[in-house]
């Protein structure tokens, strides 16, 4: 029933084979979507090669550099997508970054630059990508981003990233309201802790994973594939009535009160 054949899906944020974005891209491809991928450019071209080699089995028809802190590059990316695809049906936003020193210690010690960087890359980038992508959306298009429980509750060593995820989740609601009349949907998945390149910057990530495995209703954490399956559903016509929502894919951990 879940069929994305003929849909153009742009996936951002793939870093390696542990990335949640990679799990999402695989499941979108499995459902029949035509995949496009962006990567963070660097002077030596390391990310281009690493990501390019990884996604080769998905046969992406679009493979472009996109630094979301560079407005000109964002516009160039979507100009090229317009030339190659003409339209976008699915936009996947899996981008987050905070300086390591702002993910530990007392939150009040967060630097101004660290706060701005975290909010820029992790939250504003969704709005900025939508700004350029908006003319390319068709009726029925879908936008999806990734959040985490730390955006609504205090999580040790998450600090400024929690504030960024909170801003991201509110951005989902405002964008859903704005794009709803176009029949374009905007949602987020709040995934349980998964060991990825991004999560490795969070101190005690393995302790967090083990804690979830102990107290979550399913007594385990989740996989990239499970998040990818939910993403494919949310981007399909099966979820045509769902927008502005934060969907928890965390083995039920979010519902628990006393967790010791």
TrEMBL record:
Positions that bind substrate: 98
Keyword Acetylation: no
UniProt pathway: Lipid metabolism; fatty acid biosynthesis
Residues binding NAD(+), per UniProt: 13, 19-20, 95, 165, 194-198
Enzyme Commission number, as recorded: 1.3.1.9
This protein's record includes keyword Lipid metabolism: yes
Any GO molecular function: enoyl-[acyl-carrier-protein] reductase (NADH) activity
Top-level taxonomic group: Bacteria
Pfam family, one: adh_short_C2
Keyword field: Fatty acid biosynthesis, Fatty acid metabolism, Lipid biosynthesis, Lipid metabolism, NAD, Oxidoreductase
Reaction equation(s) it catalyzes: a 2,3-saturated acyl-[ACP] + NAD(+) = a (2E)-enoyl-[ACP] + NADH + H(+)
Active site: 148 (proton acceptor), 158 (proton acceptor)
Top EC class of this enzyme: oxidoreductase
Family annotation (CDD domains): ENR_SDR
One GO biological process term: fatty acid biosynthetic process
Annotated family: Belongs to the short-chain dehydrogenases/reductases (SDR) family. FabI subfamily.
Record-given protein name: Enoyl-[acyl-carrier-protein] reductase [NADH]
Organism: Cyanobacterium aponinum 0216
């Amino acid at each position: 029933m879940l069929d994305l054949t003929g849909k153009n899906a742009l996936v951002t944020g793939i870093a390696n084979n542990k990335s949640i974005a990679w799990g999402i891209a695989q499941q979108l491809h499995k459902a029949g979507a035509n995949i496009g991928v962006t990567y963070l450019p660097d002077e030596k071209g390391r990310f281009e090669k690493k990501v390019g080699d990884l996604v080769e089995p998905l046969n992406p028809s679009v493979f472009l550099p996109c630094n979301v802190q560079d407005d000109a590059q964002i516009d160039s990316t979507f100009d090229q997508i317009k030339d190659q695809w003409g339209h976008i049906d699915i936009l996947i936003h899996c981008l987050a970054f905070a300086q390591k020193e702002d993910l530990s210690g007392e939150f009040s010690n967060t630097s101004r630059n660290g706060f701005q960087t975290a909010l820029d890359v992790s939250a504003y980038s969704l709005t900025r990508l939508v700004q350029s992508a908006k003319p390319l959306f068709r009726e029925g298009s879908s936008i999806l981003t990734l959040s985490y429980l730390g955006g609504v509750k205090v999580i040790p060593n998450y600090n400024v990233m929690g504030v960024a995820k909170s801003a991201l989740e509110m951005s989902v609601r405002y964008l859903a309201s704005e794009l709803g009349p176009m029949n374009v949907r905007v949602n987020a998945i709040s995934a349980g802790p998964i060991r990825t390149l991004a999560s490795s910057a969070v101190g005690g990530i393995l302790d967090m994973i083990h804690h979830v495995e102990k107290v979550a209703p399913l007594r385990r954490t989740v996989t990239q594939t499970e998040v990818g399956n939910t993403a494919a559903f949310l981007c399909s016509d099966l979820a045509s009535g769902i927008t502005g929502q934060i969907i928890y894919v965390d083995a039920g951990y979010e519902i628990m009160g006393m967790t010791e």
